[in-house]
Amino acid sequence: MDTTVIPFKGLRYNVDKVGDITDVIAPPYDVIKSDERIALEEKHPSNIVRLILSQPQPDDTETENQYTRAATLLKQWITDQTLVRDPSPNYYIYDQSFHAPDGKYYTRRALIGLGKLEPFENKVILPHEKTHAGPKIDRLNLMRACHANLSPIFLIYQDPDGDIEHIMEQHTDGKPPEIHCKEAFGSTHQLWRIDKPESNSKIQKLFATKQLLIADGHHRYETALTYRDEIKNSHEEDTLSGYGYMMMNLVRMESAGLAVLAIHRLLSGLTSDQINRAIANLPEMFEVLETASLTDLVLKLNTFKGKKPAVGMYTPDNKYRLLVPRSPVQGELDVTLVQETIISKMFKIETLADHISYSAYDSDAVSHVKNGSDRVALLMNPTPVEQVLNVAMEGSVMPQKSTYFYPKMATGLVLNLLK
């Protein structure tokens, strides 16, 4: 194993210029809805959303478009010192404190560094979900224009003894953070710097033998690989430069602050025949137990968590059902069972984008069905992170939206210039 995670000179908001950092950060680009984007733009003229979600205009051309406008704005913010680059290489420590939907309180700690880009076949950085072409094209165009990582991706590493976190604790215990953002996007946000070469050297050596699992950011990672190869082939830059690296939030797998939620499947656009036929065929594949309420269904579903596959179903006839496979496949994941057996075979849904949305909240799932007779909700248990890692190490990938590491990490605390 030859994993490379190095410190870097982060590009960060100048507090003296922008004021409260809470006003300029944003959620990840792919979870921001149109009205939320507008609200973030109105919150502050330098909010990071103006870079990560610059909007197209009717008269856009190849040389003047949403991506070039983002690049121009980034250069402007650097020139007027809205964004300032740290003078020496650092790792950054990022804490998020939050209440999960189950009511539990967590603090998740990440180390922010630059990870060397590796093809998946090298087994250094592992994917666990399938990706789609559209988001990669969009992010590639933005990267080509800006030559920067505007947001980090989220990866997980194994560290049973907590050696890396112990070093981080030496730089946070009893020391106030450089950035403290009050609650925003579901959590508070704190940031420290590790600017001591001795500590940074120890961290870099500890990562050298670790595999990294992508938790969130598959599209952006594949985009960075594509762009690195473009740069290499064009001879514009040596790939040992910044183009060969990507900004990463790295979280210890064994951390008590790592909250993994279920992602429920919300089906829509179904015919009455599709729904009735699927319900009628359930007993062939599943033991079916009807429950009196959502609360009862969730309690029973939770008893199967991490033990064997099980799925909850809520249908327009106002019935809650627990589905347990009659002949479970050894090692089959809940998400695979739902995708291949229930969605594809029983409901005969082929084009997922036209019929499926997602939610981490079971109450949303029920409301979804109550708002239309063409709908069904499939309730899931969360996929244990150990199972995610096992799938990735086997070289396999899971269906899209198989995991939800809660909450999303903020964009805008640290940026990384590629050149």
Write a structural description.
With 419 residues, this protein is of the alpha+beta class. It is 34% helix and 25% strand. The chain is built from 14 helices and 21 strands. The protein has helices at residues 15-18, 34-43, 49-52, 66-79, 133-146, 163-172, 197-207, 218-234, 272-285, 294-302, 334-346, 352-355, 362-370, 385-393, and strands at 5-6, 11-13, 83-85, 91-99, 105-116, 125-126, 148-149, 153-157, 179-184, 187-194, 212-216, 245-252, 259-261, 264-267, 286-291, 311-315, 319-325, 356-359, 376-379, 404-406, 416-417. The strands form five sheets. Strands 1, 4, 5, 6, 8, 9, 10, 11 and 12 form a nine-stranded mixed β-sheet that branches. Strands 15-17-16-19-14-18 form a six-stranded antiparallel β-sheet, with helices on both faces. Strand 16 (311-315) and strand 17 (319-325) form a beta hairpin. The longest helix is centred in the middle third of the chain and has 17 residues, at 218-234. The radius of gyration is 23 Å and the shape is globular.
Compact overview of the structure:
The protein is an alpha+beta fold and 419 residues long. It has helices at residues 15-18, 34-43, 49-52, 66-79, 133-146, 163-172, 197-207, 218-234, 272-285, 294-302, 334-346, 352-355, 362-370, 385-393, and strands at residues 5-6, 11-13, 83-85, 91-99, 105-116, 125-126, 148-149, 153-157, 179-184, 187-194, 212-216, 245-252, 259-261, 264-267, 286-291, 311-315, 319-325, 356-359, 376-379, 404-406, 416-417.
